[in-house]
Amino acid sequence: MSKKERKDLKAGKAPLPKLLLLRGHSGSGKTTLATWYEENHGYKSFAADDYFYRNGEYEFNPNELPKAHEDCIFKTKLALEQGHNVVVHNTFSCKWEMDPYFQMSNRAKISVWKLVSEYPPDKQIHPQVIQNQKQKYETYSSECKVTFNKDNGEVLFY
User: Fold this and answer.
1) Is residue 19 helix, strand or coil?
2) Cα–Cα distance between 63 and 124 in angstroms, integer?
3) What is the 3-state secondary structure (H, E, C) of 79-136?
4) Coil, strand or helix: which one is 41?
């Protein structure tokens, strides 16, 4: 806990919840790490992909992608307002895709992590999809690069 957080607690102010933005190409382990944070640290976990699950089946429709992102933003904002820590795991290839979340900075302490996968994806992803995402990727100056060891739950920063 930081000095400011301790001071706020003494003054009767609740600490700001945490908002963790996980970014990386498809299959890099964003969902795996988000699930780990949800199960082990009580974070609420949201992704635009959640919108496309119907009755347990993933049914992607590119025409509904704007709605999927709006839904993810709405759920994140609501959870933060309720005082929950939140992890959002989207590709976030372009910096502007994170802007709606940065606008929540008065509601949360924000961290941005870029997942650098050391594992083959658990799902079938066409290599061209990953290549296109990597080409489009814009670096965010304050992001931390991390890997996640799904066997022992260790997050490695570099």
Assistant:
1) strand
2) 22
3) HHHCCCCEEEECCCCCHHHHHHHHCCCCCCEEEEEEECCCCCCCCCCCHHHHHHHHHH
4) helix
Work out whether strand 44-46 and strand 18-23 pair parallel, antiparallel, or are unpaired: unpaired
- Domain of residue 115, CATH code: 3.40.50.300
Residue 9 lies in domain: 3-157
| CA 60 from centroid of its chain's CA atoms | 19
Rounded CA gap, 80 and 87, in Å?
Answer: 10
Q: How many domains does the chain have?
A: 1
Tell me the residue type at 13: K
Quote the pTM value. 0.79
Summarize pLDDT for 33-81 with one digit per residue, the tens: 899 889 999 999 999 999 999 999 999 999 999 999 999 999 999 999 9
Answer whether 90's CB lies under 8 Å from 46's CB.
no
